[in-house]
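Hey, can you fold this one?
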Amino acid sequence: MIIQIIGLPGSGKTTFAKELCSRINAVHINADYVRATLNSDLGFSMEDRLENARRLGELARMLSGQGLDVVVDFICPTKETRKIFGTPDLLVWADRIQEGRFEDTNKMWEAPTNYHYRIVADASVEGSVTDFIEEHDLHDWKRPTTLLLGRYQPWHEGHNALLEAAYERTDQVLIAVRDTQGTSPKDPLSFADVEKHIIAGTTDTPFILKVPNITNIIYGRDVGYKIEQVKLEDEIETISATQKRREMGL
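Sure. Predicted structure:
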């Protein structure tokens, strides 16, 4: 996912971006830093602004293509710069000031007509980030979360029953998929295959994360969470993953 935050200089883009990244565990691309390093050969002519936007768009797509969530904050003042950057999954407009600190940017600035979220002047950063996350159903790493840890080779009805039980505990659930492909005949599916089966077999928007082949869990006292076994109906308890793999031809 690519989230682009645009707005005049001093409108709070970077402050919003940093708080958002900490909440959704995203990679932050800040245009000021990129201009001072990777794009230090560029100035502020329209030609260079367009090239800066193009490079930022390509960098964001490269990282997103590796499975990372990416937040990019930069002015991106005109329709042309936004077009050459590319279409993000979500566009945020920091509309908190009427003029920025650079006169040339103020003159060329074009307010966007289409965006997914607008940051207004009287809203707090934390409140705006929370509102944005909830409005777009993003996974919030700071919210209470119930963990489901397993191989899921494959995901089946029993796992769905566990997922329902998990949602009774918290309104956010993380499905942690152990990376076990090839470790035994019972583990033929890759993480990508498991993820597809989970998405196809659930009705919500699952929070799915690939984790190492975790074989032991230990904890100390007063750790702030509990580990519990959920007893399901006998019919569900007897579901065999081995039989499911046979049915799938695996």
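The chain has two domains: 2-135, 146-247. Let me know if you want another pass with a different chain boundary.
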